[in-house]
Amino acid sequence: MQPKDFGFGEDETILRDSVRKFLSDALPVDRLRKLVAGDHVEAYEGAAPPLHYDESLWRKIADLGWTAVAVPEAAGGAGMKMVAIAALAEEAGRAALPSPLIPTLIATCALREAGTAGANAALERIAGGAAASLAITNAQGSWEPGDTDVVAEEAGGQTVLTGTAYFVQDARKVDFFVVAAKSKAGVGLYVVDVGAPGVTIHADHIVDLTRDQAHVELAGVAIESAAIVAAPGDGAAVLARATPAMLVIVAADLCGAAEWQLQTTAEYARVRTQFDHPLGFFQAVKHPIVNMMIDIDRAKSLVYGAACDVDCGEAGAELSARMAKSASADAAAFASNRSVQLHGGIGFTWECDVHIYFKRQMHNQMLYGDAVYQRAKIGALL
Predict the structure, then answer these.
(1) Which of 18, 48, 340, 365 could make an S-S bridge to 347, C-beta 3.0–4.6 Å?
(2) Does one domain contain both 116 and 148?
(3) Same domain, 117 and 222
(4) What tens digit of pLDDT does each residue of 93-130 get?
């Protein structure tokens, strides 16, 4: 049985409020705009996508211990519950935070399911402020265990990785990757440093201005035994166990960004006048805003319910997490659409900050499966 308020207590409230206060002060929307959306030509038409990233801000975030929130205490972290991790991800979404925090949280959830010496060593690095990202997706966009395009072979007493991992999140910001590679024995997981010999990062052009994405080429990358997170044959099970937590993190990010879209649109409807009335006076405006609120509240309830299921070790955690991701993706799509439309003529412009969040939402909707995909998975589970 779930505890009261999904187990969201005083510690989680303090974390959420402190994160919100810090990001409100350090990354107001005008600074976000200058950081990621200063020039549309540079953003989308250059030969290589720019890296919109304030490394000094990231160092402050690491110093505050945000990377350690999901790391178990045994590995030097805070060992906080999944509901706390969801709150952290939600605030990152609310600020459209351009940093490797979200992929690091996701990678941490996979590492802590492994329970090996290699995983614990990687978790200790994250607790110390390192950033990480999963490299598990193939060229067709499938992240299902076993679909990886990277192959692991034994050579000279070492494991050698060859192939390419696609759709790697914030690949140019992280310190290491957790790579899924297949062999005759099955899928294994391996830690690969970004600067390791044989690693080449090819940046992708994507619509989202608040993150980067790349495909990572591995050309005979040698792996020491200490860098093995999950032995061949164990990696798929580790990723499957981590899937509910991974989906909760992305869903929480979606809810946080949708909340910003709701509040910003409601404020605009209060101050913008038409026919001698605020826009919010008209039912054609107020009703969609209320519907945005309802969709977001429903999605947030599912997100924290799923996070609580993860914390409680419930057998239905995957079902709950897929429901949360489905509802959050739908809420994000509706909030994005209405936020642009209800901002009227300026909503379509580069100068209106709505587009920054719209594009982040588009990316997150597809990450690890959109709403339709999740509902198909829910149908199979049922």
Answers:
(1) 340
(2) no
(3) no
(4) 999 999 999 999 999 999 999 999 999 999 999 999 99
Contact criterion met (CB below 8 Å) for 132 and 126: yes
Tell me if the pTM is above 0.85: yes
What's 152's domain CATH number? 2.40.110.10
Cα 142 to Cα 47, 147, 167, 173, 222: the distances in Å are 27, 6, 10, 23, 25
| Distance set, CA 181 to CA 153, 335, 364 (Å) | 9, 38, 25
* pLDDT value, residue 278: 72
Query: Could you tell me the residue range of the domain that residue 317 belongs to?
Result: 236-381
**Total domain count, the chain:** 3
Neighbour count for residue 237 (Cβ, 10 Å): 15
The tokens of 279 are what? 């826009």
Boundary residue ending a domain (233, 251, 274): 233
As a whole number of Å, the end-to-end CA separation of the chain is 20
